[in-house]
Amino acid sequence: MSNTTIFSAKKIITMNSSRPEASHVAVRDGLILGVGSLEELATWGEYTLDARFADKVLMPGFVEGHAHTMEGSLWTKVYCGWFNRADPNGKLWTGAKSVDAVIERLREAEAVLEDPTTPLSGWQLDPIYMDNTTVTRADLDRVSTTRAVGVLHASGHIMNVNTKALELAGMLKPGLNHPGIPLGADGFPTGELKGPEVMTPVGPFVGYERSMLDADEAGLRNFAKLCVRTGTTTITDLASRMDDETVDTMLRVTSELNYPVRLMPFRFFMGLSSKELIAAVLALKERSTDRLRMGQIKIVVDGSIQGFSARLRWPGYHNDAPNGLWYIAPEHLSELLHLALKAGLQVHTHTNGDQATQLVLEKLGPALQEHPNPDHRFTLQHCQLADAAQFRTAAKLGMCVNLFANHHFYWGDEHYALTVGPDRATRMNACRTALDSGVPMAIHSDAPVTPLGPLFTAWAAVNRITASGRVQGEEEKIQVREALWAITMGAAYTLHLDGEIGSIETGKKADFAVLDADPTACDPMLLKDISVWGTVQGGRIFPAANL
Amino acid sequence: MKQEIPVVVIGGYLGAGKTTLVNYLLRNADGRKIAILVNEFGDLPIDADLIEAQDDEMVAISGGCICCSFGSDMTAALIKLSEHNPTPDYVVIEASGVAMPGAVAANISFLVGFSLAGVVVLADSECIQAQAVDEYLGDTMLRQISDADLIVQTKIDLISSAMVQEVRTWLSSVNPKAQIVASTQGKVLPEVILGVEIVAGQPQASRHADAGYESQVFNKIAPCNPNFLAKKLATGGYGIIRAKGFVLDHSGQRWLIQIVGERYDVTSAALEELVAVVCIGRKGRLETDEIQRLFEN
Description:
Chain A contains 17 helices and 23 strands. Chain A has helices spanning 38-42, 70-74, 99-111, 137-141, 163-168, 196-199, 217-230, 244-254, 274-286, 330-343, 354-370, 388-396, 405-419, 421-426, 431-436, 454-463, 480-494, and strands at residues 4-13, 21-28, 31-36, 48-50, 57-60, 62-64, 78-79, 85-86, 92-93, 120-125, 149-153, 158-161, 192-194, 232-240, 262-268, 296-300, 346-351, 379-382, 400-403, 441-443, 512-515, 532-537, 540-543. The longest helix of chain A is centred in the middle third of the chain and has 17 residues, at 354-370. Chain A is globular. The two termini of chain A are 28 Å apart. Chain B is an alpha/beta fold and 297 residues long. Chain B folds into 2 domains: 5-194, Rossmann fold; 198-296, 2-Layer Sandwich (Hypothetical Protein Yjia, Chain: A,domain 2). Helices cover 26% and strands 29% of the residues of chain B. Chain A binds chain B through residues 170-171, 176-181, 196-198, 200-201, 211, 241, 268, 270-275, 311, 322-323, 325-332, 355, 359, and chain B through 13-14, 40-44, 69, 71-76, 79, 96-98, 100, 103, 106-107, 109-112, 136-137, 139-140, 143.
């Protein structure tokens, strides 16, 4: 029996400019032996021809450079979002378009719970789309008065709970004085909890018992299923606290025979001093496997634009909200950049606002002069408001950017009307400018903030359509081929993996996205609707239908 | 009812002197069991000679004090601390250099078992005015100062006395509500930072009120409207930095009043507590006679 398999396909889009298209790909030992015609590949000797993809289009397995395994964990809870969203098992949940619809959905889930003390948790509620209707504990009491109920918002920063949950957490009392705990006319909390600090004491009573950033076993499995369904074969977990238990779980689950994804977790910078962090991440790097790539650091510099916690340069927020928050002191940032460069560890920095981006650019320059590293690929994550000058500087410094293309669809209208105003909203996530400035670029979903789906993300960057259907930023659109590059080679480059994955090319991992149609041949508006048959990862075949 | 643990939030930018102040408090704990909660940046902020033992979770400090670091989840760290045995007498949270201490303090208000004992913000006498106009940090610095009940103007030995006064005037213009005290090498009367101590139901005058402070016990206090009295003490210009004690209302109910800067708090107290209030102010600035008149009236 031969150990070479040659797959035939309707078309293979390689993302390798030396051979952009082919009809066959040969795989041996999980690696790509060659790409070409059957005749050419047959020169390698004995093979098995596998024609199951004869009517499919193969692309390099998609690479998602900014997601969180939390997406997988959340699917153990009730989906309460506004938009339709597919779960790990392929069921499409229709969007809940009113508070009543959300309540109804929670009631259905409640009805099948047997243990009366089990909490009921929901996620992805987004009242922005319901005219900012406030959900109260009275609403959630309609789900249950005896069982704790909690629903996390899409932002991840607000939660609504019922009366029972407040009671269990000792917060059902009048006169609480906290901006994150709105009070009703009776002086008691309304059940809306704003901000992680306020959510923490109630979390354990409503099924949000541990840090949602830490991957758990069920979550990792769900996450992997979502990857297969979206053609993703390598994905980041950005960021994780990576305590021993989490790392052990990640190592165990990803090493299972049929785990279909290569996972790249980044160590969250908080919780350790700079020196300890570097030592811890160096130690993690040593424990890496093919399917669990550790040894990177994630720094969060500011907050979010729609939460008004991102740091903006002049003229600041369009609605005159005060400037946002720093999550790291400039000196601390500088120290970490120095130490990481010295240790040869890669850093990705979350900067939403342009002032936060500017700070990173200004701090990285001197650090690089002290610890020169021409191929560091430190990456500005989100980087949503960067202007052309910042992209040029990023390129000069050897940085990459990973722009939040999906954001434009989900919150573009809000940014236009409220947060940054028409002008800057139009140039948000400026993919065209980034590419023209010569900065290596990826685009991302930040799942679970928006759903995982590289083809959707490509669609968002190509068409720049907002939720209301407007084109926002015609000049910042990119071509389909550029978007497809961004979700394969572009993202692989930001992870230092472009030599291993991102294209279908001899010597690379046999990682393929198996598509039912050709994304280069369809109407660009239909990119997001191309169905995904499944994936091949390391030569292993994963049909979505069999998950 | 279990006593709530008073929590002091200490804010201020890197280099303002938070670590020095914390170590001074630990050296002068005087039997108080203080738990220090620190953010993680930099090395452990406890002087080596004070450390008795150390593991991943916690540092044990001489005198029954402890120190733990919290990453991104302060609330979880506090909940854990409330289960620590023995229970700390005070919690001091050393906020990160860019944190908004007011927001940190707000998170104390709903936590069962804790009560906020004030927001103390440190300002480096040499640097604060430059920091306040820094492109990146300026607004953060101003918001930190505005959050304070009590501002500690640190490192006054490094600048002229005229400059000390100028910085003080400037701080006061940024936050007119806060009391301002000055310090060198972190030396501030522990009661000023932590609040008046209560031992066996009695508020204690400070045992060390010599370094620029006075600490006065008042026990001739007529039955009153406790909220009105507390507000008056906090905002009436009596020079009170901190005050704490027990008063009676007109129905004979006992109340604990606590003051730091213009922040005041009134809670019902047990029947056995003695009626007495301790007020602390800067030496020569505490309007003792007027305070006495207020209590008697």
